[in-house]
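Schema walk-through. Below, the input block comes first and the output block second. Nothing else is stored per chain. Lengths vary across the set, and this one has 890 residues.
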Amino acid sequence: MIKMRGLGCIAGFLLIMGTFTLHAQVKPVNAQHQPSGKTQSKSQPPAKTHITGQDQPAGQVQTDTTHTQQGTVSAEDLEKYRQSSLDLINFLEGTLNFLGDRKSIPREKEVIINNSFSKIFLTPKVQVEDDLDERRKVPLYKDVQAYLKDIDFFFKGATFKFRVDEVQYTVNSPTNLFFKITVTRQLNGRTIEGDTVNSTKVRYVEVNLDPEQNTMKIASIYTTKINEEEELQSWWNGMPVIWKFALGKNIKVNQNTDLSQVMQYSDSLTLRKGDSIQHVAFDTAFLKKESIYGAIRKLVKLHNVDLTGFKSIDNLDPLAKLTDLQNVNISGTKVKDLTPIRNLNFLEVLNISNCKVESLSPLRYMQNIKELDASNTDIKDLIPISAYSNLERLNVSGSKVDSLTYLSGLSNLSDLRFNNSKVSDLSPIKGLQNLSILQLSDTRVKDISPISSLNKLIRLDIKHTEISSLDSLTHLTSLQLLFCDQTPINNLRPLEALPVLKRIYCDESGIKKPEVSRFGLKRPGVLVVFESEELLKWWVELTTEWKKVFTSLAAIPATPSKEDLHSLVVKTKVDISGNQNILNIDPVDKFINLQSLNIAGTQIISIEPIKDLVDLNNLNLSDTRITSISALRNLKNLDVLNLDKLPITSLDPIYGLSNLRLVLMDGLQAPAALKDTLRRKIPNCLVVYQTDSLTSWWNNLSPDWKTIFGYPNTMPTRIQLHQIQNLKELVFKDNIRITNLIPLKTLDRIQKLQFSGTSITDLTPLITQKDLLVLKCPNNPIQELDPLKQLTGLVELDIEGTPVRSLETLVNLKSLQVICAGGTQIKTIKYLKLLTNLQRLEVFNTRVGSLSSLETNKTLKLLRCYNTNLGKREIGRFKEAHPDCEVVYY
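--- output ---
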């Protein structure tokens, strides 16, 4: 009889593990190819056991070395492997006894089930035939972790004893050695129902060599050798019809048949046809058994199962086979017991809301769960999830939970909801620094000071509580939404400095209009929802035409509820364009979050009601009777504004709206000078105001210029025309049909102009290009630079390969940093003496004969002056005086 000594605590557990691992480190199987032969061990096997080789009778005398067609193992190594395998049986017995001992510490059991088991089992998918339930008639195989969990689940106490009866081995390849160990297992214990168990069974333990770690590990444990196909067939055939519909509805057996239609299958197949589970007629049809088996194999590999539409389901037994499940939703079913899913080790998301579940105990070892929705259940105890280190979202609203004590260590929790519960103390969650959503409405909480340091909190719901102060929220800098309806709170001052706060809901609270007005001055961008009675009155007083607009906008009934109206006034878009029956826009002042408003083509004469709609970013006022836009002065988020055909004469209110990206004002009565002022005030805004003149300009362009501007065959839209007018950079080359720059007179924002290989001779059209910074015009027949003398902002000039004779025009262009004049006809650079910002000068292939004008220049970094009239001596003097300047000369 093998006994496990000293396994009373986890320290002993780890000590024995260490001893086992050391003992198992032996040399791998020799990879020599030898003829197969009889084998034996040098040492005698222990009493009551014997070892046999491949195809040898038990107890036969063996030679010193074991040979197979695949490899060789010495008798010495074979004995070491055999002893390691027996150590595994010893350790297995101790492990099972530790899990069956009610005195063992639960957290230490968790370590074994979730981590340490891998020391003796080959993989988490090792199959163990269930021997814990003596009443079981059909063999059931479980993943090893599931089997280990069940020892703790099914027994109040249990002890295991193993007697080794026989040890057999097989060598399949140089690194594939396994032992089959026959043991007699004795189980004594008491079940959770109080029944006594005294069971003796023959068990087979297969132990494989793990080549990576060079250790022996258990590969399977069974009484009846597993037959997966028969097991799956038995599982499916015994499954209730409702489950077959639930699990098989989207899995194809063939092109015409879903798995959900297969009621029973064997050599002949019964198919159920009909659209509802109440239909009782069955048809039979013949399908390939292999196709059904393949479909069921797909089923058991599913990652997601949603049973929300199957309200009559009252147990989860079929899910025990789906061990790869990651997401399970059983919301609204009749399920009470979670025990069947206790072994879904990969489960990450579980929704059991609106079920009659009373206990989470079956889930206590499922530490991969990230999301758990247990709202509206009968759960009271959160102890089973206290070690859920990966838990990110938890909802126990409407449950019987009255304490958060066991959540204190869940540091990854970001979303916690326990509305409508008996919780009164927030102290246990004060350290959950990752919380971003916290909901505790309808609870007994009075003090929220424990959450004062949760600065990642984005959404907080404390409505219908006795909380009377918001002082603890002063430092919650990430808070965006606060729900404090039906509370005694009467002061919003603690929220004034919260930088990203968006909305405060405080209906039926101590917050009154004066406090809201005061707060609004401090934080005009924050929406405060209060006094819904006033909103109901607002609706009653609306005109019939506005009610039609809003009813259509929000799909609300003719007599809306308070909730309907709140859903209406948070809409972000209102469009009444072309509606001649609406004469004012007073009702839209309730739409604090309004982002887009279109009143084009109406009879509206005033936009005063929108002056506080600070989130407005798109506004269309075109073709109305509006004469003043002063109400727009504070709408800093305006992005697009349409003022077409308005009878207004002043644009002053919008000069400060720096976020404007597009303003349409064709046909506006305001003077053109004001429109140009707007363009200067907001340089990144496209002002569309002269479509007619730009259209005429475009129609007179040559095909070559239209190609340069990117529209060779189509007429640009009015926005595109103005985009061309506002071009900041233009590049074209190699077109001798381009003879002048006259079309550029219309473009008044060019900063960089580059052209070459054209027939352009005159730069005069550039005189008005005050924004021009870079002009590159090499290899063009340009002779004079006089038009550039007023372009004092010019930074770079490239006239390489032109017939330019003099640089005199550049004498006052003191911003110039780069001049490329190689290959021109210049003879002197004396006019560059005052250009103190010059960093790069190219005068190669010219008749320049002196560098004296550069003597005082301290900024020059590069001078290209080869093939000129400059002498080596002068070049030498220049280099000596300007050691930081690179000179290219030869």
